[in-house]
Amino acid sequence: MSTRAISRLDPGDPGTKPAVSLTGVSAGYEHNVVFTRLSLDIHAGQFAGIVGPTGCGKTTLLKIILGTMPAFSGEVRVAGQAAATIRPGLVGYVPQLGSVDWSFPVTVEEVILMGLYTSGRVWPWPSREERRRVRDLAHRLGIHDCLRHHIVHTSGGQRQRAFLARALISNPRLVVLDEPTSGVDIKTQHEVLHLLGDINSEGITILLTTHDLNAVASHLPWVICFNNGIVAQGRPQDIFTADILTRTYGGDIVIVRHEGHFLIANNTPLRFKGDAQ
Question: Helix, strand or coil for residue 10?
């Protein structure tokens, strides 16, 4: 299978330009090479998810795309520009909620406004138009009623939406999300993914990482199975097979299909202290 992704809008259109393009990229840390000679295209307008086990290199891949971590070798381009030199505001980023310090004294509105300063603006106070855009985004994402609330006093779903609004405030062409469905309940997971689908339908490219295979199978049109490199990629109904997911995650993966829906589980039995060996 090719290691190049295709557009969800028109897979056969050779004129569709990549929003993200990696060619022969090797990356990692001082004593740990995470992946080598990786080539991948995410096309403009695509809605794609990267799935794989913990420690397989998903977050490293996002850092390379965001330009916050240099590659050892190879070429990384975002909207045709070198990733390390992309103009501010071109890419919106939503971090893992678990990496955020919730004790920092900011309101939901102030969290959203922070996105303006990643877009290169220097004036410290938001304009009337910028505050109007915050209100519009908050209405759209369902968090208008908590704009003045301290972020620590909001639910996991409200926090996720606040950081999504922060990513969208600069009108990016690409939004990158690291584990947007972690730390929230199943209902909120589906609401967030539906919301991302709506945003994608407006032409914004969406790239996310996630551990939730069942949610991915239900919502995402394109998936990249990753484990220190691309194992396979394509539509969930094509690549979510026991063989591919076992090669991605290890263990014994069981897939139940019913009327177009998936249920994916690990069939490796759990052992507890005192079990017979």
Answer: coil
Q: What is the percent of the chain with per-residue pLDDT over 70, rounded to a whole number?
A: 86
* pTM, entire model: 0.86
Helix 156-168 vs helix 186-200: angle between axes, to the nearest 10 degrees? 20
DSSP state of 217: H
Rg (CA), the chain: 19
Residue given tokens 């908590």 in the structure block:
146
- For residue 82, give every residue at least 6 positions away whose Cβ sits within 8 Å of its Cβ, in sequence order, or none: 67, 75, 76
Q: What is the pLDDT of residues 252-273, one digit of tens each?
A: 777 777 666 667 776 654 443 4
- Top mean-pLDDT range of 82-91, 144-153, 208-217: 144-153
* CA–CA distance, 42 with 173 (Å, rounded to integer): 12
Written as one letter, the residue type at 271 is R
pLDDT of 78 over the 70 cut? yes
What is the rounded distance in angstroms from the CA atom of residue 249 to the CA atom of residue 96? 21
Task: List, as one string, the DSSP characters of 101-155.
Answer: -TTS--BHHHHHHHHHHTTT---SS--HHHHHHHHHHHHHHT-GGGTTSBGGGS-
**C-alpha span between 85 and 98 (Å, rounded):** 28
Q: How far is CA 67 from the centre of its chain?
A: 15
| Mean pLDDT rounded to a whole number for the chain | 85
How far apart are the C-alpha atoms of 264 and 20, rounded to whole Å? 29
For residue 249, what are the contacts with CB-CB under 8 A and spacing of at least 6? 52, 53, 227, 266
